[in-house]
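Problem 12. The chain below contains 68 residues. Write out its predicted structure in token notation.
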Amino acid sequence: MPIYEFDCPECGEQFESLVFGFSTDHITCPECDSPNVKKKISLFASKSSSTSASGLSTSAAACSTSST
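Solution.
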């Protein structure tokens, strides 16, 4: 059961909601009770002993900013 982030364009409230199933049609704003809420695009982070929180190895080469 994922937790989604939402924005309410009616009152500006930003909130999270635990969603059962795939539909978010039943979600309403906790501040103004508007059903006109927009699901935000959000990312999650996962960390193991071999990767950083971003999923990139700590030994990844950095981009060079010098010009040749």
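Discussion. Residues 6 and 39 are 4 Å apart (CA to CA). Students who got a different answer should revisit the alignment rule from Section 12.3.
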